[in-house]
Write a structure and sequence with these properties.
This protein is α+β, with helices and mostly antiparallel strands. It has one domain. The chain has 4 helices and 3 strands. Strands 1-3-2 form a 3-stranded mixed sheet. The mean pLDDT is about 75.
Length: about 120
Amino acid sequence: MTTVSRISKSGLPVKSVSKVKLRKRGTLRGIVGLTTFSVDGYQMNQNGESKPNGRHEITFYSSLLDRLSDEAVVAVMAHELAHAWLNEHLGPEASDRREEDADMLAEMWGFEHEIRVLERETEPI
């Protein structure tokens, strides 16, 4: 997957993605990709704070991906990987702007052009 190979090696890796699925369509209208998190338990970090320990599953919906350009599809993939990274390294309480945060992280990884293409081809949800 070229999207994964383009992510900078200088940052912390995404380690918690356990499965990537492709489905024809989803139950949420207009959703092209969805990252879900399953908690396996809790782990203690170096500061003594408890943090969920689990796995992410990323699902892409082909009926909507098929309507996008290749560049926009790469943007969707980078965006969903950014969701997994943010949930893994920051925790869900760190931000109430998860969609914007995922886009910003994908841009920091070098996917700014693809994110702009995706914005032109889709409507915000």
